[in-house]
Amino acid sequence: EDPAIHFKYIEAAAKTGQIKEVERVTRESNFYDPEKTKNFLMEAKLPDARPLINVCDRFGFVPDLTHYLYTNNMLRYIEGYVQK
User: Where are this protein's CHCR repeats (predicted)?
Assistant: First the structure.
C-alpha cells in the first residue's frame, strides 16, 4: 500500500517493456501517485497509451490525456477512448 513502491513497480515495468503489466497496475492499483505516474508515462512515450489512459481516466486528467494523444499523433487511442 506504499505509493512509492507502486510507482517504482510501474516505472520498472515500463522501462523493461512490460507494457501489459503497466496497463494492469494502472488499472487495478489504488496505491500510486496519479500525478507522478501520469507525468512519468507522458515522458516515457510508451508505444501503447492504455496505461496513460487508465491513469487519466481514473483520476480526472482527461484534458491532459487528449492533448498528449493529439500532439503525439495517437489519434486511434482518442477514438477508442471516446467510444468506450
Answer: 1-84
Measured CA to CA in angstroms, residue 44 lies from 30, 37, 50, 51, 62 at distances of 21, 10, 13, 11, 18
The one-letter amino acid code at 46 reads: L
Residue spans per domain, the chain: 3-83
Residue 84 pLDDT more than 90?
A: no
Q: Categorize the per-residue pLDDT at 1 as very low, low, confident or very high, splitting at 50, 70 and 90.
A: confident
Q: How confident is the model at residue 37 (pLDDT cuts 50, 70, 90)?
A: very high
> At a CB cut-off of 8 Å and minimum separation 6, what does 72 contact?
45
Q: Quote the cell numbers at residue 74.
A: 495517437
